[in-house]
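Exercise 3.2. Students should predict the tertiary structure of the chain below and write it as C-alpha cells, then compare their answer with the key that follows.

Predict this chain's 3D structure.
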Amino acid sequence: MVLKCSVAYFIGSLATFVTPASNLLGHYDGKHMVATFCTYFHPARSMGSMHQATLYALVAFMYSALVSVGSMGLTILFANMNLMELGHALVLVMFCAGGLGFIGYIKHTKAHPTVNVACSMASIAIITILTKEGSVQRAEFNVGKIGQVSIILLMAIAISNLLAFVLWPSSAIDDLRQLMVKCFDAFSESLGGITHSFLRGSYDDIDSTKYTSIEASHRTVFSSLLKNHQEAKLEHYVRGTEKQHRQETLLVESMQRLAQNIGGLRSAAHTQFLLLKEVREHELGGVPPVPLGSRSASSDAGRLFTPPDQEIQEYLPGDHSVGSVSSSSSNSSIAEAETTDADIESSPLTILDEFMYHLGPPMRSLAFSLREMLDDLPFEAAPPYRIDLNSVYESSLEKAVDLFNEKQREALNTLYKSDAITKRRSVEEAADVEEIAASCGYFSDNLTFFADEMKSFLRILQELQRLQETNERSWEWLKFWKRICKKKVVISSEEEALLRTPSQTDIVPVQVMQRRRTIPNVSPEAQVPFTYKVWKALRALRQDHVKFSVKVGVGAALYALPSFIPTTRPTFQLWRGEWGLVSYMVIMSMTLGQTNNSGEARVVGTMIGAVLALIAWIAFPGNPYALSLLGWLVSMPCFWIILNWKQATLGRFILLTYNLSALYAYSISMTDDNEDDDDEGGVNPIITEIVLHRFVAVTAGVLWGLFINRMIWPLSARSQLRKGLSVLWLRMALIWNQDPLNSLIDGRDGKKHTDITEEYSLQKTLIRLNGLAAAAPHEFRLKGPFPVKEYQRIHNANQAILDAFHGMSIMISKDPKANRREIEILKYTKKERDALCARLSHLFYVLASSIRLAFPLPEHLPSTVRARDRLLAKLFDYRANVRRTAGEADEDFAMVYAYALVTARISEGLDELIRNVGLLYGVLEDEMLEI
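Answer key:
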C-alpha cells in the first residue's frame, strides 16, 4: 500500500515537472497542488472506500466552486454600486466565516476519515480563491483559477482511482469476509477456553496470555469489521448486489449478538471462579464458620458474600435457621462425624460437582458442535471467500440443542428437589448455593442463546449463498422513479385517533401536560415569560458543535481580513498567509487537547519537510528528473507514517511542506510571466526564503488556532471528560433508580434515560469519552501530568458495567413479559431487589457528584454485598418452602439468576470506580471548603 501511494504521489508530481501536463494547468503557480491532493486523496483504500472518498471529494469540489463563484459575484455586485468595502465585508462574513465554518461543522459532526479529507481539500480550494488569487479583492470574475483548481482536483481523483483499481486492488467485500473468518476463529477459541475453564472450575485458561491476546485481537478485528461493512456497501451498490449487502448486514448484527453471548458466558464463569475461590479458602483452609452478625464491616470488602444482619433469619424457615442446631457439648464424637460427613456431602463445592456431573457431558457436546461450526464458517479461508455450507450443520445443531435443553431441565430439576439443595444451612451457605445455581443456570442459558443465534446465522448464510450462486443483480437504488411514484397511504389525524387503541401511556395527567408548557421547577400556574421562550428556541445555538463551527468561522474571517485590506495584502501575500489559514483549518478541533496535538504535529512536520525540501533543492536545483525521484523517495516513509502510525498527520504534514517548497520552487522557475513571486526569486527561486515563508505561515496559523480555541468558548478535554463521566454515571443511576425487572410485570414506561435498553446510547457516550481521555494528556496542566492510568482503569470498569447492562437488556428483550411463576418470584423478592437497586443507584449518584465537583468521596459508602445476600437468601427460601407446586420449571429462575450475576458484575465495577476516583480526588484541601 505504501508503494501504491508513493506511485500516486510521483504521478501527481509530474504535473509540475512534465511540461505538457504543466501547460494544461495554465500559467498559475499552484501546479504542485496535484501532488498535494494526491497526498490527501491517496489510493491505499479499498474499492468501496474509494467510491465513498470520490463521492465526498466531488461534493467538496462542487461546494468550493459554489463558494468561489458566489464570493466573486457578490463582490462584483457591490463594486458596481461603489460599495466595494461593504462587499468585502459581506464576503468575509458569508463565504469566509460562513463557508469555512460550515466545513468545520461537517468535519466535527461526521468525524469520518474520508469526510476529513474532503473537508481539507475544500478548505484549500476555497482559501486559495478567497485570499490568494485576488479576483475577489479586485471585484473581477476570473474563471481561470477556478478552472485550474477544478482540473487539479479532478486529476488527483483520477490518479488515485486509477491506481486503486488497477495496482493491487483491495476489495472491502473480501476484507469484510476475511475479518468475519478471523472473528469466528476468535469465537471458537473463546468459547472453547471459557467452557473448559467453567467445567474445570479453574481460571487458568481464561487468565492465560494466549486468551488475553485473543480478546484484544478480537476487539480490534471487530472494530475493523464495522468499518469494512460500511465500505462494502458502496461496492455492492456499484455491482448491483445490494441484496447481498442486506444479508451481510444481518450477518454482522448476528455476530454482534454472538459476541455478546460470549460476554455473558465469560461473566458467569468469572462469578463462579470468585465464588469457588472464597468457598475453597473457607472449606479447605480450615477457617471456622463465623457467626451471623459477628463480622465487622471492614471484612466485607474483600468477600463476594458476607452474612447479612440478624434480620435476614426471618427469610429462612424455622427449622432451617442457624440457631436450631444444638451446640450442646454432650454430642458424641460419632454424631459429630456423621454431621461432618453430611456437611461435606451438601457443601457448595459438592453441589457444584453435582452440577458439573449432570450438565458437563451435554455442555461439552454442545460446545464441541458449536466449535466445529465456528471453525468451518462462514466463508472459505482464501479469496474469493466463497460459502461452502455443510447441509448437516443445521440439523445436527438442532439435535444438540434439544438434547442439551432436555438434559438441563432434568438435571436441574432433580438437583433442586434433592436434599443436598433443600437441606437446612446457614445464610452464607444458602447464598453460596444460590450463587452456584445462578452461575450454572446463567452459563447454560447463554450457551443456549449462543446456539439459537447460530441457527439464525446459518439461515442468513444460506440465503447469502443462494444470492451468490444465482448472481442476482438489480441496481434497485438507481430506480429513483419507483421511490418517487410509490404511493403512500395518507391517514388523517381523526382516522388515526379512531384506529389507534389507547393505552395507559397515552393517558397523561393534566398536571403533567401543564408542566410541559411551563418552566421546570416552577408552579404550573406561573406565566411563561417571553424571554424563556426565546431561550428555549435558541437551544441549538448552545450545542457544542454549533459553537465550534461559529468559532472556526470567526477565526478564519479574522485571519483572512488582512488579505482584503490594501495596505496589509502585500505582507499577507509575501508571508504566504493562505497556508497559515489552511493550517488553521486543519488543526482546529473541538477540544484544546486535540488542537494542541494536531498543532504540534503540524509544526514538527513542517520543520522536517522544510529541511528535506531545502536539501533537495540545494543538491539538485531545477533538475526535474532528480527532484521527481527524490520526491518519490521522500513520500515512501511519509506514507508509511500516514498508514501505520497513530499520529498519521505527521507524515502528511511533512509531505505537504515538501510540496509547498521544492515543487513550488520548480513551478515558478519554469514560469516566465510570473510577476507575483518575484519576492521569492521568480524564475531564480530563493529556496531559503520559500522555506522560511512556509514555516512562518504554518506556525502563525497553528498559533492562531490555539489562540482562537483558547479565547472563544474554550472546551477543555479534561473538564469535558469529567462532565461526561458524571452524566454517564447519572444516567446509570437513573436506570437503577427503578428495578429493571419491574418492566416484566408492569411493562416499559417508555421514559427516556430510565430504560436499561438505553445501554446502546451509553456505549456511544463511552466511546466519545475515550476519545476525550486520549486528548486530555495534550493539555497543559500546572498540577502535573494527566493521570492516564487511573482514567484507563475507569474506562475499563465502565465498559465492564455496560457489558453487564447489555446482558440484562438481552435477557429482558428475549422474554419481555413474565409468566405466572416468574411473577410470583419477582413479587416474592421485590423488597430485596428494591433495596439492592437503591444502593446501586446511590453509589452511581455519589460517583457522579464527586467527579463533577472534583471532590473526595465520603469515607463510608453503602455496600451492595449484604443486599445481594438478602436477595439470594430469599431465593433459597422460595425454593425450599414455596416451589413445590405444579408447573414449576428451572427456566422461571433464569431472569432472577441473570439479575443476580449482573448486579454482582456491576458491584465489582463500582468498587473499581470508587478505588480510582479515590486516587484522583482522595485529598481534601482547604481551598475546596472555601466559600
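Discussion points: The radius of gyration is 34 Å. Residues 18 and 624 are 8 Å apart (CA to CA).
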